[in-house]
Amino acid sequence: MMGLSTMAQVTPVVTASKEKIFIGEPVKLRFELKAISRNAEVHWKFPDSIPHFEYVSFDTTDLLKREITITSFDSGLWAVENVTAVIPSNVNDKEQLVTFPIKEILIEYDTTGNQLLNDVKPIIDVNAGEAWIGYAVAAAAVIALIWLIILFSRWKKKKISTVIEESANTPLEDFLITTKRLKGEEWDAQLIQKKNFSDLSLAVKRYYERKLQQPFTRLTTDELAMQLKPYVLNETLINIIQALRLGDAVKFAKFAAPKDECLQTIERMETTIKQSEKELKPDA
């Protein structure tokens, strides 16, 4: 009986660096297993996506702990849930599924004047005698929108579906040339990180654009995810989107990532692209 009483129960614990953030601001969440053997075999299970949040990065250096960086562009009180782990029982070593507690994060607009990602303007009353100006502007906007739709339709019909090759190198060679240069760049300042991640993002999109002969370079991260999904494995897609979303956080949310994390992101992308080189069909 004494032996059973001293057998601790494995406890899943969730902590957050902040309970409240502004729109676009990153927050770190730590998922940790307490009272478990350091040699235990743990299989972590994170959802592919978390409603109202976007993954920025994963820290997987500790087997018994996972630290994720996420951000959100939706104001409100949102929950991070459905994070689980398969672990051996402390009683009989049989596998058991543990579920981490739900963690709620409050997302707010920045009203301090920093205007991180939003610029909310107060509503101004309009004199009734000047209402005709509003109607005129609205009518002009509708006409302009219709004209833009027409122009876009014409452009789409003329759009060339093939991708023009501008280099004598293979897609993989050009990608590795870019990553080799980026490894030698400075990564300390946020503005420098912004430029470097823009170059990395373009290199990734350009690689897949040339391999699959589809115009990817002008797509957003979410649009690229949808377009690449039929062609790459799920793990490959997650690695690509995580790297690009870290770049998005640096570019649009003025987030400065640690230099080591930036260089690790480049290394992971090199590994991912090399794996894609084996999985995808030969260049068209």
Any key phrases for this structure?
alpha+beta; four-stranded antiparallel sheet; three-stranded mixed sheet; 19% strand
Secondary structure topology:
Blueprint: H1 2-5, E1 11-16, E2 20-22, E3 27-34, E4 43-45, E5 54-59, E6 65-71, E7 76-80, E8 84-88, E9 95-99, E10 103-108, H2 131-158, H3 171-183, H4 190-212, H5 221-228, H6 234-252, H7 259-279
Parallel strand pairs: 2-10
Antiparallel strand pairs: 1-3, 3-6, 4-8, 5-6, 7-10, 8-9
Helix pairs in contact: 3-4, 3-7, 4-6, 4-7, 5-6, 6-7
Succession of helices and strands:
HEEEEEEEEEEHHHHHH
Distance between the termini: 69 Å
**Which residues sit in consecutive blocks of at least 5 with pLDDT less than 50?**
1-6, 113-122
Number of strands: 10
Q: Mean of residue pLDDT?
A: 82
Report the portion of residues in β strands.
15-25%
How many distinct helices?
Answer: 7
Largest sheet properties: 4 strands, antiparallel
Radius of gyration: 24 Å
| Class per helix and strand makeup | alpha+beta
Considering DSSP H and I runs of 4 or more, what fraction of the residues is helical? Answer: 40-55%
Strand order of the largest sheet: 1-3-6-5
Overall morphology: globular
